[in-house]
Amino acid sequence: xxxxLTIAGPFxxxxxxxxxxxxxxxxxxxxxxxxxxxxxxxxxKSTAAxxxxxxxxxxxxxxxxxxxxxxxxxxxxxAHGIKAATARACKAEGIPCxxxxxxxxxxxxxxxxxxxxxxxxxxHASHRNCLRCVLCNIKGGRRLNQLCRHIPPSxxxxxxxxxxxxxxxxxxxxxxxxxxxxxxxxxxxxxxSRCSSQVIAPSAAMADTLRRNGLPQNRLTVLPHGAPRQKDxxxxxxxxxxxxxxxxxxxxxxxxxxxxxxxxxxxxxxxAELHIFGGAVTRKEQRYQFELLRQYIHLxxxxxxxxxxxxxxxxxxxxxxxxxxxxxxxxVFGLDMAEALAxxxxxxxxxxxxxxxxxxxxxxxxxxxxxxxPELAAAIQRILEAPPLNSPACHISSTFPQHAExxxxxxxxxxxxxxxxxxx
Length: 424
Description:
single chain, alpha/beta, 7-stranded parallel beta sheet, 13 strands, 41% helix
């Protein structure tokens, strides 16, 4: 079975869980005896393709992908990036296409499925429902919401088309382009939902979001991501004297690190430690990190380790007891939770979507409401009063080889279904 994976950006990128997932999936797929794996990456002009990866121009990815499809003639394509372009190209070439919804950006114009009130969005994507969120993500845009929402969508989009042809003007151009931003995201999602053979949701919460936005049930598969095998080592001693909490992930607002730090600050003279692993990449993330450091760098027992290589991260987290996943936005899966549970750690997480699939309250962790400092602080205090002294007994994620086997079964089913539909 010839399988082609499409991604956006370098194959070796580790910016988020989606990129790490694809690399581990490719490794697991390569171990499947029936699979002949190919990888295509859409890259900027300044980025060279890596060995063994077909490079596509980000500007002309769809056209170049169609040429690659004619050359390789894969049995199926699995899109992890450039999803709309991949779905269109596969539809045109008559090749089955599977799309995995790695994050809320597959539907949400602002990318995080986080509404203007910092709650997980439960609305379907539309101009009416999304405009306020888009404007609130523009500095000063919140004040113009009442005015902009009275502009007819078609007229608003025309203003955005005109703005695209003019030099960029700070504040003005993003405001004028807001309707176009929503329109483009909506068109992109409609293309994915109509042209793909199947869309994979890594959690039940993400499946609900996809259905809410019009994806038919018969073209939706809920399949959680895989996790590493149980790692060496045992649950560290000393939890009764110094409980070590840790956070792993991008330093961005959606991950809720500000909520965790405020909750941790309320513990006062506690001997508990908080270890933070991760970095800020974009300017927005860097500003967020700078503000957090300004507020909390003086607090004792909080350690900022920055981004770490995977092997080094494993070594550093072996001494920790409890992963905290304080996301305030929709978490489609949560690879850090799967890794922590597979390594015998406990998890304290918000009910952010992916957590409910993995954390069984009281058995391998605890669940709290997102974006609630009092509730998170109270949960941490309860854990400190009765710390777990042994690793939890359960975690539900498959290993990556098992996950690859599950995907191969899905591929075979889709290929057979597509053959039945073919007039030939």
